[in-house]
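Researcher: Please predict.
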Amino acid sequence: MWRRLAALLLVFAAATAALWLLSARLSARSARRPLRFPSDLEELRELAEALRDYEREHRGAALALFCAAYLYKQSFAIPGSSLLNVLAGALFGPWTGLVLCSALTSLGATCCYLLSGAFGKRFVVYCFPDKVALLQGKVLHPITSSAYRREPFCHKSTLWMPFSPGTHCSNCLRWLWQH
């Protein structure tokens, strides 16, 4: 169990290092302030202005950095992706930003699901066995009841939609099925 937790920390550290190297490369080219995730709308506005100029000259590199940052936040369930949605609209336009964010949200939620199944399941079951049993009872009971068979979309839609709380439901369901 502890090896899996250490492996998750190693994956997190590697992803953080890769994102830092990518942003450092971009910062060196643009010769502006260091890049970081925005925490409010003012910082988002400043970041959008800095990246807009760079994006015009180096569209591929800006797109790669944006995708890497978005996947990083989604894969490790780090809050703040809504500001990146706004940034996508400011940098790439509303329609391209919408398609990009939709695809990245789905891919990031899938990565989060796979990471939680590969590295987090045993740890959560070990630390919170009562909570997992309670969730199993709440989730598995509707599935075996006749109401679920009549209206399956309501219950299965949380697996298809990578939005909160759907992302967290998807992660928990993986643990609940296999426990």
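Model: The two ends are 15 Å apart (CA to CA).
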